[in-house]
Amino acid sequence: MKLDNSKTIMMETRGSDIRVKNVLDIKVKARQTIEIEYSEYAQEHDKRIFVDAAFLRELKVGQVIKFQQSGVVVKIKSNKEHATMCEVIE
How many domains in the chain? Predict the structure, then answer.
């Protein structure tokens, strides 16, 4: 067996995680409609969720987004020009 001097780098990527960019806490309840909008930067807003997912408008009506830490689950109802309308299901 021969050892070589090559270097191996291993990197773990998280895939298509969506990170919330809101500075303020948002309180939601089941069956509530809420808007989700793409933003690269932190936003001070308590009525709309901002996320860093540029692919947000590519999601189809009926698809589900689960926010891991809070356990909130939303279902996409429609896509508007600037935001995606969702209904809180959990």
Answer: 1
> Does residue 39 lie within any of the structural domains?
yes
Domain ranges, residue 83: 33-88
Q: What pTM was computed for the model?
A: 0.74
Q: What is the DSSP string of 42-76?
A: -B--SSEEEE--TTGGGSPTT-EEEETTTTEEEEE
Cα dihedral sign for 17, 21, 24, 27? negative
- Nearest Cα to Cα of residue 28 among 53, 51, 47: 47
Q: What is the pLDDT of residues 30-76, one digit of tens each?
A: 999 999 999 988 888 888 999 988 888 888 999 999 888 888 999 99
